[in-house]
Amino acid sequence: MEILFILIYQPIYNALIGLYSIFDDFGIAIIILTLIIKFALIPLSRKQIESQKEMQEIQPKIKELQNKYKNDKEKLTKETMALYKKHKVNPAAGCLPLIIQMVIFITMYRVIINLSNNHHLSVNTEHLYAFIPQPDAINGFFIGFMNLAEPFAAIAVITAAAQFYQLKMMQVKNEQNIEKTPAKKSDDKKTDELDFATIMQKQMLFIVPIMTLFIGLKFPSGLTLYWLTSTVFMIAQQWIVMHKEKKMTEEQPK
Predict the structure, then answer these.
(1) Which pLDDT score, from 0 to 100, does residue 47 have?
(2) Range of 184's domain?
(3) pTM for the complete prediction?
């Protein structure tokens, strides 16, 4: 645990306090630190988005395999792996960015929780590097009225809505790909049902925002502000990737 403290917790803690000493606004410090982290993770985030997009693009073919080999799980697994290999898709490729983002989120949670003390923000000087200015006190109010050391309902709702929109962007793209699959008649009603992954995706569309709202209503809004900034960044990144894809498709000769 000490190695995680030195390599992850302490740098984020000091970066946050350092940014606060520059801008004299804890909310702005959180936003800027979040953007710095997100820009640093762009290569991994791009890989995650591309991996998700690739998986979505082959979903129609996976669905065909599921319908074709619904009674032969061994054959289905073999053919699915062959499909992944053919299209050079790694289902686990998006896991590393998610793990890193989760570690950073947990670290931000610990940093903000440790800074929050009885609805106020205070610095533990033992965690500061020697070159980081030590603030006399931290003004925990963002835009004049939002105490980042306390939960704030409005930002919790906005963050949950942003999470819903981000997930919806990916789901719409997935549904568009599935619709490209030619319909096949079958006496088995199960062939017309959504596969397990699609069902889970639809459930997560609501589960994740609800969890976000719950967390936002229970924990300091500084954490929710980080989450909101990160989500908005991801929405913009996904939009850019999808826009480029659409433009490339339109430019292809018909």
Answers:
(1) 73
(2) 2-247
(3) 0.78
